[in-house]
Amino acid sequence: MTGLTPGVYPVNVLPAAPPNFLTGVPAFVGRAPTGPGTPRRLTLWPEFEAVFGGPAEGFLHDAVRGFFENDGVACYVVRLADTDPAAPSPDELERALAALEEVDDVDLVCAPDLAAAWRPGSAIDTVTGPQRALLRHCRDRGDRFAILDCLATDDPGIAAGQRDALNATDGAAGSYGALYHPWLRVGDRDGRPRHVPPCGHIAGVYSRGDRRVGVHKAPANEVVEGALDLRSDLTAEQAGELYARAVNCVRALPGRGIRVWGARTLSDDPAWRDVSARRVVANVHRWVERFMRGLVFEPNDIRLWVRIMRELTAYLDGLFQRGALKGRTAEEAFFVKCDSETNPGPVVDAGMVVTEIGVAPSAPAEYIVVRVIQGASGVTINAV
């Protein structure tokens, strides 16, 4: 190259790539014959049997197999130490969830053995109590979503009652999970049919949709691979009644196979009713948290505020271009505000940076405001 001072060479410096991550990555919590009690990442079905052994009491084996049968890419497995086939103890479940706190890759949580604790005539709370612990875990983190199994029942009324019980004590956590009914009929390694909770297969459907379209794709009207039949066949009327009660159905449709027929969270709040809306915001949460980690100890002035607005605007515009946000223009789809209004003198003096983000997910197309506060204790993200 000519025209350069001798000894001076051009160097192309590219900006650092924005943080990126795989979505549709579930953590499965359940019983297995062997294996570690700490989270283990798996990318192939044979890895599960090599690490955790073959089928055991419970449904962890079936859930992980169903995940990979439905084009799941990667998952984590946490083995419960409990040997009680009735239900994992609260302490053991909390230990497993605590072990997942340090795993950044996970955005879905499944515990297929929880629903197996119920028997006809027993109290629903034996299942809904531990399932609420999963919902609280996802709510407290803000970046995970629980895929929950209905009880092993043919009665749609019991399934609807389970949903009401899950939402009874903490409705705010309900938007962080979805409930699926009925159980699936699959073949085991000996070819004998058995009924299993649907969460593993459903998690694979989530992963498949994320990879093909993105987290804004509703995980519904998708074929469930690996299922031979259903524990019960729901009529269109029954499925409609359950969907109105925020229970997602799996249906056998003539000529179309077995499909997921619903994408509702447990929440009564219209803004958080759709699974895709919650997962889009959870995805924004994950991205913002990772981006903001790189800004710790930066001078808290207008230059930092402009940088935050520039990077977040570029990221949200990418979501808008992919169809995750609704609006004719980017201005209608989202906003980012980080200036002297969100950061008055007392906030700056306290060592915090406050950013407000508004997004309109493609469903339900209403603004959801996210408040991001960065301080000495880390990043706090609240969706309001």
From TrEMBL:
Which InterPro entries does this one have?
Phage_sheath_subtilisin, Tail_sheath_C, Tail_sheath_structural
Q: Where is the Tail sheath protein C-terminal domain?
A: 267-372
Q: Name one Pfam family in it.
A: Phage_sheath_1
Tail sheath protein subtilisin-like domain residues: 91-266
The family classification in the record reads:
Belongs to the myoviridae tail sheath protein family.
- Please report the name of this protein according to its UniProt entry: Phage tail sheath family protein
